[in-house]
Amino acid sequence: MKRKKLPFSKEQINIITENYPTPFHIYEEKGMVEYAEKFNNAFSWNQGFKEYYAIKAAPNPYLMKILRNLDFGIDCSSLTELVFAEKMGMSGAEIMFTSNDTTAAEFQKAIELGAIINLDDISHIDFLEKQAGLPELVCFRYNPGALKDGNIIIGNPEDSKYGFTREQLFDGYKILKEKGVKRFGIHTMVASNELDPDYFVETAEIIFELIAELSEKLDISFEFANLGGGIGIPYKSEHKQVDLEYMSKGIKNLYNKIITGNGLKPLKLFFESGRAITGPFGYLVSTVLHIKETYKKYIGLDASMHNLMRPALYGAYHHITVLGKEGKDCNQLYDVTGSLCENNDKFAINRLLPETKPGDLVVIHDAGAHGHSMGFNYNGKLRSAELLLRKNGEVVQIRRAETIEDHFATLDFNALPDFEV
Ligand SMILES: Cc1ncc(COP(=O)(O)O)c(C=O)c1O
């Protein structure tokens, strides 16, 4: 297997660790910005195109500020994420609210911020109306069921909890129209980490045809189609990055044929990608604490699955580089573990790596999405810091590490003497 490259050297990381102890996540601004610009350029043919960064991927205000500067919006799915958007000073059409099993407080906040509301279920029309009132513009999430294959992360569309059936879409937009809603959008997201660009072209075809049919049957017009997130990234060095130009060209041909060809109003295209935007540009840097040899050989890191749980959760592959040993033979078979009391706490199983020693620095690649953000506190583990490698080579801390005081902040030990047992 080919080795993946890094945007920093061992010497640079050694200097960084003088100020910031491992483990930490470090994001590379240059790579992220170049990719974001490539995304925008690929769809520049579409008037009103917008990518709403799925903030769940890496909810850091500094990363969001960089992306917002490139005209990205934010895709939120919870109250906290909406408040994050509010704290960023974002409002209105800059925010897409794609939630499911939504609370009244979440809808109320979304309405207060003027966010675009993407409903997950037909029953949410009434719920939203009662709890927060219906906005002028409403979007529905479509689940195409058997029309599309899913994958291991998101499951088969028919088994997935998300979205409206086709029939419900026709009923739902009719209800909205009767209730006086005038502006409509449609959304779908049926895959996660999908590397085949044709998958997204096929999805666009399903959505465009549906728009044509809904528009005709219900006499309504659509302002936008949100094609969701789910663009995959090359976690393995032999994987190929999704060709955005190719994908965009395929979608444009269908747009011309189905949307323009049917005389429909111009349609804005949206995405709500997270993984593709920050995933490849984030790295988890960790120090080897111990090498253990029993029935197998183990590299014990100072990072655990609470820093990056994808390998434990999905058996996901993340490339690993032992810093400074890039040129050495990968001739030792290791399990690379964290310290949780949980046997799944492994970043890699049976991974060939160069001979590794305590004190070596290890970099886990592609940790910039669903990495730090999926962190948790089991065993009282603390979330690590987030750093940013700026375009000019400077390194800034964009989130401090949690402290033990942060961890205990929700507990009142002072009240224990009054607690009778
Ligand atoms: C509704 C919704 N939108 C967007 C995303 C972002 O997906 P990805 O990070 O795979 O692009 C997700 C991911 O879980 C999602 O659930």
The CATH class assignment of the largest domain is Alpha Beta
Count of distinct structural domains: 2
Spans of at least 5 consecutive residues whose pLDDT stays below 50 are none
Q: Radius of gyration, Cα only, in angstroms?
A: 23 Å
**The CATH topology of the largest domain, please?**
TIM Barrel
Query: What distance lies between the first and last C-alpha atoms, to the nearest angstrom?
Result: 60 Å
| CATH homolog superfamily of the largest domain | Alanine racemase
Mean pLDDT: 96
**Distinct small-molecule ligands in the complex:** pyridoxal-5'-phosphate
In one word, what is the shape? globular
Q: Tell me which CATH architecture of the largest domain applies here.
A: Alpha-Beta Barrel
- Count of helical regions: 12
Q: Sheet bearing the most strands, described? A: 9 strands, mixed
- Multimer state: single chain
Proportion in β-strands: 15-25%
